[in-house]
Amino acid sequence: MSQVSDLLRRPWVRWLILLVVAVVLAVLPLMLPVFVNQTLTRIGVYAVAVLGLNIIMGYTGQIMLGQIFFLGVGAYVTAYGVVNDWNIVVIFIAACVIPALLGLIIAFAAARLGGLAIAMVTIALPIIGVPLAKRLSDLTGGSQGTSARFSSAPDWTGLYDDQWQYYVVIVIAAVAFALAYNLVRGKYGRAMRIVKENEAVARSMGISPYRYKVMAFTIAALFGGASGFLYMVAVQYTSPETMAFHHSISLLAAMVVGGAASIAGSLIGGIYYVLVPQVTNAIDPTITAISQGVILVAVLFLLPGGLVSLPRVIRRIFRRRSGGTDQTPSPQPTPPATQAEGSETERQA
Amino acid sequence: MTLLELEDVTASYGNVQVLDGVSLSVPENGAVGILGANGAGKTTTLRAISGTVRTTGRITFEGRDIRGLRPEQVAKLGIAHVPEGRGTLGQLTVRENLRVGAYLRKDRKAIAADLDYLLELFPQLRQRISSSASALSGGEQQMLAVGRAVMAKPRLLLLDEASLGLAPSTAKAVYEAVQRLRKDSGIAMLVVEQNANLAFTVVDSATVLETGRNVLTGSSAELKGMDEIRRAYLGG
Amino acid sequence: MGTFIQLVVDGLSTGSIYAALALAIVLVNQSTGLINFAQGAMAVFSAYIAYVFVGWGVPTILAILISLIISFVIGAVVERLLIRRFEGGDPDTAVVVTIGLLTLFTGICGWLWGYNNRQFPSLFPLDTINVFGAVISVRSLGTIAVLVAIMLLLQLLFIGTKLGLALRAVSFNPTSAALSGLPVGRLLMVGWGLAAALGAVAGALVAPQLTLTPTMMDTALVYALAAVIIGGLNSPIGAVVAAWGIGVLENLGAVYVPFIGHDLKIAVPFIILFVVLLLRPQGLFGRKVVVRV
Predict the structure, then answer these.
(1) How many whole angstroms separate alpha carbon A176 and alpha carbon C94?
(2) Hey, are the CB atoms on B87 and A332 less than 8 Å from each other?
(3) CA torsion, points C260, C261, C264, C269, in degrees to nearest 10?
(4) How far is Cα A281 from Cα C10, in angstroms, rounded to an integer?
(5) Which residues numbered 165-224 in C keep a CB inside 8 Å of some CB on B?
(6) CA A274 – CA A250 distance, rounded (Å)
(7) Rounded alpha-carbon distances, angstroms, from residue B202 to B122, B152, B156, B189, C38
(8) For a pLDDT cut of 70, what percent of chain C falls above it?
(9) Which pLDDT score is estimated for C121?
(10) Which of C179, C188, C189 to mutate to test the interface with B (most CBs of B within 10 A)?
């Protein structure tokens, strides 16, 4: 096994794998049936949404239950732009920027509050967003929603609609993933992780938790908006239901199951989000919710790092079996001195 | 008869080994001190007994092996631990703190009598009986912590750094009360103290710890006379 | 004037339901130090249990009492088997676990009983009385009365009994409490059991109005969370006062502030939440919390 991991460490091997994957992804839709292409497209859509969520929640450690709101805003902006004949590039930029601005404003105000308060503010977004969307019917088409047919394949490509949609979504998603990968690998990513770990320590290192929370939140909203645009490319219709609160919970579950604080985990999360309901609905729709609940709880217990950590865990099990030293320290009871002093432990308001 | 016996006890926090083979014994009704500098492992020894840290070695109480028992179970056997930092339940009143101490007991009349005794032993507590415990001064909180432990009517009292953070006169008052307690009730005691002078007012014998091991053991009289002790712990 | 009184009373009534759930959340937070996002879903499950007993011909009040006891047991078991592992760790992970529970409980309800609305019998007669020109339902008054009774019982439990003292001791300092022999693990289970029982009451009170569905208490949960934060995470009184306040202000806002109306009245608790937190981050009745590095 170690030869494989050594091989994987060589940069040229990684580039080769990436190239192979890219080629496969490019050729796939030309051969697969419409339904599969559509599924892959939707995976791309939600992978980007989960990626945004991961940046604020997985990496920076802030509970964010409103990601679906930004997806919804992005979708609505896209729909509005299409209906009013904007240039497609302008639509895309607006779909990314407007949610990002909203995220920025919200984060400015909320990031100073404790973790639970931030969570509540993010809950407010979809919960108020849905009736608001119904009310502002001039902009949004009210409860009926808006249709926006704009992602039919242009004639010069010679592609079918589903294939064109697939390419658009996959390309944009790939760019999003590449950008995110660079972000978390660099100094910003390190700073976000320190903020997640311990804000007081971050402050002592000159890292402003407030600033990084705002930044991460805005980026999450931006990715959310982008995924909203991709959603419209794939579905070509949006309604208030698109940003219902329970979707936020599903996105969070997908992030955890895929792997928090992991780029690859976000992709797995997207796959989970789309495929599991498809499978369970085919078997029996009433078991969808309970299966998702069971999977989420099981992952939290058995594989807290998410599915993306499976190879690592398997490797560790094999290493232990073959008699190697187990690196992880066995859990010790925390020395009770700090608690026995009767001091208040940190409780985030 | 030996009440408590430790044999070659080790303990570690994560990868840091704090106790490296500590042995001691406390006779029934006896009082033994654990002396030593900061970080010698004195507090950890008490924690090893009350079950709040994982250990190896032998720890027996009244002949039975208590190593590995949970703190609640150790308390049930009759060992009361007054922890470092006092462990006061701040949001409860003084009276409620004392009642918590008597949690395992069912004899209402005796509990009330013991409460009265303690309030007589520590008159400051009687004055503040209905105040929230967090409003008490350091010395009063220490007295409350001792009182709470005594309310359990233990056979063995573990007293951890009772003088910590207290003014010398207050610390002296606390130890005087502990002396009286010992005389009145005959509770066996294991007293951890950095201030050897104070410890010797209560204990019959002591062991000195250094980096998790016993380096010196003897009666109070013997130890008081030793130059090393005098230099290191009694200030000359 | 009549409308105003009606709105206030109805607001106190719905507020009482939020308050019951909020008390459960505070109880869980006090004892185990985490926020249970599944409190509402567990309450719905309890309501379904009562529904099953009613379906078997058991009188409503008895069915609810039985579901209270069963809920207590479920709450205790959930703490021991599912939550215990995550206590004392990262609170955010614990929250995600409770969100997992939320999905699980909702899913179980959906699987066992489907997603159609079920009719749940009301504890109270559907009569109304006339007070100062206002038409007030007996059910509203009954709900408020139940909540007040609960608060008195809880107060009695926590201040007047040994068990209550033990629960409080464990919630403030479990390690120190253990040194006095308190069975910490068992007491944590009792805390969760009590909270689940409180949730069961909330569920039974609201089900007749909203009709029983798996997602029945999703909105109530959000209100309850807001009430808990506004009132100060560790203050039961604060949570109840805040919940009542939210119930009343939400109703008044819907009617007297045309911009809000009935569809956006859900925004009211969040507005209050935001304002309170900006002015007083520890909540109205909360204590300032010390942060240790």
Answers:
(1) 30
(2) no
(3) 70
(4) 40
(5) 165-166, 168-169, 172-173, 175-184
(6) 10
(7) 17, 20, 14, 9, 54
(8) 97
(9) 87
(10) C179
Task: Yes or no: say if A320 and C104 are a contact pair by the CB < 8 Å rule.
Answer: no
Which residues in chain B touch residue C180, judged by CB atoms under 8 angstroms apart?
75, 80, 100-101, 103-104, 148-149, 152
Instruction: List Cβ neighbours of A254 (8 Å cut-off, separation of 6 or more).
Output: A46, A50, A269, A270, A272, A273
**Structural domain that includes position A165:** 45-322
Which residues of chain A have a CB within 8 Å of the CB of C114? Answer: 286
Residue A349 lies in a domain: no
- With CB atoms and an 8 Å threshold, state whether B88 touches A342: yes
How close B24 comes to chain A (CA, Å)?
22
Specify whether the CB–CB gap between B150 and B169 falls below 8 A. Answer: no
Write down all domains in chain B, each with its CATH number in brackets: 2-88+153-233 (3.40.50.300)
Please name the residue that has the structure tokens 């992970």: C93
Using the Cβ of A335 and the Cβ atoms of chain B, whether some distance falls under 8 Å is answered with yes
Nearest to B5 by CA among B78, B51, B60: B60
Chains in contact with B via at least 3 Cβ–Cβ pairs below 8 Å: A, C
> What averages of pLDDT result for each successive group of 10 residues across chain A (349 residues)?
66 82 83 85 94 92 92 92 87 93 90 82 90 84 82 78 86 92 88 86 86 92 94 90 90 92 91 91 84 91 87 83 53 39 35
Average pLDDT taken over every residue of chain B: 88
DSSP state for residue B103 in the 8-state scheme: T
Note whether residue A56 is domain-resident: yes
With H, G, I as helix, E, B as strand and everything else as coil, classify residue C183. coil
Any chain B CB within 8 A of the CB of A332? yes
Find, in chain B, the residue whose alpha carbon is nearest to that of C182: B72
Q: Which residues pair with C212 in a beta bridge?
A: C118
Q: Write the Ramachandran bin of C280: left for phi over 0, alpha for psi from -120 to 50, otherwise beta.
A: beta
Chain C residue numbers with beta carbons less than 8 Å from the beta carbon of A346 are: 289-292
Q: Is the ipTM of this complex over 0.95?
A: no
Query: Are A332 and B13 inside 8 Å of each other by CB?
Result: yes
Cross-chain CB nearest to B52 (options A333, A341, A342): A333
Non-local (6+) Cβ contacts of A155 within 8 A are none
3-class secondary-structure state, position A195: helix
Number of domains in chain A: 1
With beta carbons under 8 A apart, name residues in chain A contacting B86: 340-342
Does residue A330 belong to any structural domain of this protein?
no
pLDDT for the residue A2: 62
| Chain A interface disruption, residue of C44, C99, C170, C250, most A CBs within 10 A | C99
Q: Are A170 and A267 in contact (CB under 8 A)?
A: no
Does residue A345 fall inside a structural domain? no
- Decide if B85 and A341 are in contact by the 8 Å CB cutoff: yes
Q: Which of B52, B98, B103 to probe by mutation at the C interface, max C CB count within 10 Å?
A: B103
> A-C interface: how many C-beta pairs under 8 angstroms?
152
| CB contact (8 A) between residue A329 and residue B14 | yes
Judge residue A138's burial from the number of C-beta atoms within 10 Å of its C-beta, 0-12 exposed, 13-18 middle, 19 or more buried: exposed
pTM: 0.86
Q: How many CA atoms lie within 13 A of C21 on its CB side?
A: 33
* DSSP-derived pairing of the beta strands B79-82 and B156-160: parallel
Q: Is C162's CB within 8 Å of B103's CB?
A: yes
Which chains share 3+ C-beta pairs under 8 angstroms with A?
A: B, C
Residue-wise pLDDT tens digits, A10-50: 778 878 888 888 888 888 878 888 888 888 999 999 999 99
Specify the CATH number for the domain of residue A90. 1.10.3470
B137 contact partners, CB below 8 Å, separation of at least 6? none
